[in-house]
């Protein structure tokens, strides 16, 4: 048990943070629902971080650290799928998946980054279909979610079906990515809200001096930290039960973080100029990702309790 | 970063589990349900702890020069997880090894260490914590119990403590008293409970027998040599002890065991449907989040970077975990709460109810998180 970053991890994370620093500020005067940035995506792909995080000596834990850090940045970039599931597709399966990597949980459903994606991974029961999405495979959906979204209309021609352990590994990494990204988004939203309540004055004092507000933000801090630690533990173990626990916890706790951050930033938090929505409206998409809490609960239950039930039934 | 246990740590857990299985009597779960401060559990702790000490498991994390095993705090934590989950057969003595001993190690004189640590290591001494008062609970600075100087070597204590766990059977009290006029002029004393002038009255409670008491001090003499740390510097000592106490009990371990027990009951009935599954899995995830927050605090402390905000965040996570499991049992397996089929379920409930109160109310933890983690103080 060791909660300290290794020297290598510190170096990796600090150089990644300096890449993120160039994209932390939003362009002045550009206020939109979606802050996805093709240049940011290209720089991330060219930066070699995905390759480094899949080198020997690094692994999913290192990738999850980067994903969490990227998600806390207001400018959007697809990192979770590329950094966590991407390395599993590299090599014998597909050659090199092209970023962004879009993860879909069913036909006819909205998918993040689908129109921009070089590669699509569609989960289909215990298997996954992986291919290159082309025009006609999807319909772009405008919305307020802060992710570029498109509906998946059909399976891309030539998609390969991945089965067995390889498909299970992709699924597991998708849940770990969901947990790490959700934790980073919650951190971004909370940090921005905490900075706001330190500045905003009402009744002659900063909002952050009111205990009613302090307590709810402190509860959020507990949720955010717990979610991050569970995501990192799941990535370290790269194990499906822990991945499901981390994904469930992030989906269960994000609702309070979304609500409270908007509550304490008032009407300012409703404007496009104020970047809070870039975190919270992404979180709102993640809330139902991968089947939402009910599906994560089934996955947690399968690992924690169904085996016990099965052995009991067998014994009977 | 590494979130796993080493082979040695896994072997230690197996060893403690085997030890507990071998040394807990068949009716232990019924005894445990009486509360750690009950006569029965206290008596058993005086049998169990010396055996644990013989195995080198009672204070494995204390320094070798003070009779400990010199092992890492993780070893002690693993012992704590197994034993708390088993209903805490160390009884009130978990206080000694978790936080009173470490605080004496940090602030005690050579004489105090010699006097108290050896007794704790022998496994047969009971302590109580003299913090809360009618005028000062969460507002600990509001205490009125005074220790007035009589001469260079003595003080005289007058006042009252309340909600004091284990007081009736305790030999010593870790006492906080005012030693000056200012709100923050407090000192800590290691007071023998057999001193003339001390009166203990039990208070009946839902937590169980032996858990709550009133303690009255009428002209009780306490020696300068019994003061822990410098006069008037009690807050530093108290803060140190609370950082240990807040995450000292791995409460999520018994909460998880209770949750597993309730789920097994539903499965046996064939009624573990999607709604119950969602509630149970959500509670499990909160227990695991609390576990990770507690581990992070222990890790920071071991590296000499104790952090009040982190301990308070962990404690609040634990409070939510306890509540989630207690609610799950009441919602889905109420018969386990009221019946006698699973005594440990009721035991969990009795102990969980105090999680948001002991070691500082949950709202105090939130104050500390707001101040120390978020920088939101005035």
Structure characterization notes:
The complex is a heterodimer of chains A (316) and B (378). By secondary structure, chain A is an alpha+beta fold. Helix content of chain A is 57%, strand content 10%. Chain A has helices at 7-24, 38-47, 49-53, 60-71, 80-89, 164-199, 211-237, 240-265, 276-286, 292-315; strands at residues 101-104, 110-112, 119-124, 127-131, 138-141, 149-152, 160-162, 201-202, 205-206. Chain A has a 4-stranded mixed sheet, covered by helices on one side. Chain A has a 3-stranded antiparallel sheet with strand order 2-6-5, with no helix packed on it. With 378 residues, chain B is α+β, with helices and mostly antiparallel strands. Chain B contains 13 helices and 8 strands. In chain B, a hairpin with an 8-residue loop joins strand 6 (198-203) and strand 7. In chain B, helix 5 runs antiparallel to helix 6. At the A-B interface, helix 6, helix 7, helix 8 and helix 10 of A face helix 8, helix 9, helix 10 and helix 13 of B.
SSE topology:
The complex is a heterodimer of chains A (316) and B (378).
Chain A: H1 7-24, H2 38-47, H3 49-53, H4 60-71, H5 80-89, E1 101-104, E2 110-112, E3 119-124, E4 127-131, E5 138-141, E6 149-152, E7 160-162, H6 164-199, E8 201-202, E9 205-206, H7 211-237, H8 240-265, H9 276-286, H10 292-315
Parallel strand pairs in A: 1-3
Antiparallel strand pairs in A: 2-6, 3-4, 4-7, 5-6, 8-9
Helix pairs in contact in A: 1-4, 4-6, 4-7, 5-6, 6-7, 6-8, 6-9, 7-8, 8-9, 8-10
Chain B: H1 7-23, H2 28-32, H3 39-54, H4 73-85, H5 94-107, H6 110-122, E1 127-130, E2 146-151, E3 154-162, E4 172-178, E5 186-192, E6 198-203, E7 212-223, E8 227-228, H7 234-246, H8 251-269, H9 274-302, H10 308-332, H11 334-338, H12 343-352, H13 362-373
Parallel strand pairs in B: 1-4
Antiparallel strand pairs in B: 2-3, 3-7, 4-5, 5-8, 6-7
Helix pairs in contact in B: 1-4, 4-8, 5-6, 5-7, 7-10, 8-9, 8-10, 8-12, 9-10, 10-12, 10-13
């Amino acid at each position: 048990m060791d909660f300290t970053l290794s020297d290598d991890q510190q170096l990796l994370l600090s150089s990644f943070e300096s890449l993120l620093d160039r994209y932390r500020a939003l362009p002045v005067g550009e206020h939109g629902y979606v802050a996805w940035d093709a240049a940011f995506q290209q720089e991330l792909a060219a930066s070699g971080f995905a390759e480094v995080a899949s080198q020997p000596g690094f692994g999913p834990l290192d990738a999850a650290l980067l994903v969490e850090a990227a998600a806390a940045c207001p400018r959007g970039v697809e990192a979770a799928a590329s950094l966590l599931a991407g390395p599993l597709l590299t090599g014998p399966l597909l050659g090199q998946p092209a970023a962004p990597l879009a993860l879909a949980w069913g036909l006819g459903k909205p998918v993040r980054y689908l129109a921009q994606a070089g590669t699509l991974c569609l989960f289909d029961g215990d298997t996954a279909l992986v291919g290159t999405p082309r025009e006609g495979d999807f319909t772009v959906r405008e919305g307020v979610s802060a992710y570029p979204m498109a509906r998946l209309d059909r399976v891309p021609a030539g998609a390969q079906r991945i089965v067995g352990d390889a498909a299970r590994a992709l699924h597991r990494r998708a849940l770990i990515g969901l947990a790490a990204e959700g934790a980073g988004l919650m951190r971004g939203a909370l940090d921005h809200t905490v900075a706001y309540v330190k500045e905003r004055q009402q009744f002659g004092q900063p909002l952050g001096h009111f205990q009613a507000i302090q307590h709810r933000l402190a509860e959020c801090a507990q949720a955010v930290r717990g979610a991050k630690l569970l995501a990192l533990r799941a990535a370290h173990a790269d194990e499906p039960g822990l991945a499901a626990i981390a994904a469930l916890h992030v989906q269960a706790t994000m609702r309070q973080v979304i609500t409270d951050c908007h509550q304490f930033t008032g009407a300012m938090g409703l404007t496009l100029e104020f970047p809070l929505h870039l975190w919270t409206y992404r979180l709102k998409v993640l809330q139902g990702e991968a089947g939402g809490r009910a599906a994560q609960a089934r996955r947690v239950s399968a690992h924690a309790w169904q085996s016990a039930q099965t052995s009991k039934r067998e014994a009977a | 970063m590494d979130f796993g246990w080493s082979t040695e740590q896994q072997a230690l857990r197996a060893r403690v589990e085997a030890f507990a299985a071998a040394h807990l009597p068949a009716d232990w779960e019924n005894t445990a349900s009486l509360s750690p401060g009950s006569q029965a559990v206290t008596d058993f702790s005086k049998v169990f702890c010396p055996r644990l000490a013989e195995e080198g498991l009672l204070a494995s994390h204390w320094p070798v020069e003070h009779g400990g095993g010199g092992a890492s705090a993780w070893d002690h934590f693993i012992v704590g997880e197994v034993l708390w989950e088993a209903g805490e057969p160390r009884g009130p003595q978990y206080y000694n090894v978790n936080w009173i001993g470490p605080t004496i190690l940090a602030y005690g004189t050579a004489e105090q260490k010699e006097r108290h640590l050896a007794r704790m290591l022998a496994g047969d001494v009971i302590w109580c914590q003299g913090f809360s008062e009618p005028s000062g609970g969460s507002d600990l600075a509001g205490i009125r119990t005074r220790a007035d100087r009589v001469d260079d070597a003595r003080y005289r204590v007058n006042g009252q403590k309340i909600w004091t766990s284990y007081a009736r059977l305790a030999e010593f009290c870790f006492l906080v008293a005012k030693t000056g006029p200012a709100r923050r002029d407090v000192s800590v004393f290691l007071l023998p409970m057999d001193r003339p002038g001390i009166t203990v009255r039990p208070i009946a409670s839902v937590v169980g027998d032996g858990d709550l008491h009133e303690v009255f001090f009428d002209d009780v003499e306490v020696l300068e040599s019994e003061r822990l740390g410098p006069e008037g510097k009690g807050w530093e000592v108290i803060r140190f002890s609370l950082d240990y106490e807040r995450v000292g009990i791995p409460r999520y371990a018994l909460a998880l065991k209770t949750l597993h027990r309730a789920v097994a009951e539903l499965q046996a009935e064939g009624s573990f449907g999607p709604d119950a599954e969602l509630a149970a899995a959500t509670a499990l995830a909160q227990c695991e989040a609390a576990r990770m927050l507690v581990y992070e605090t222990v890790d920071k402390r071991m590296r000499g970077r104790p952090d009040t905000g982190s301990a308070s965040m962990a404690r609040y996570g634990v409070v939510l975990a306890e509540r989630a499991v207690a609610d799950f049992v009441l919602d889905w397996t109420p018969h386990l709460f009221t019946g006698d089929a699973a005594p440990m379920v009721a035991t969990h409930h009795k102990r969980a109810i105090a999680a948001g109160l002991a070691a500082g109310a949950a709202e105090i933890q939130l104050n500390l998180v707001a101040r120390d983690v978020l920088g939101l103080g005035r």
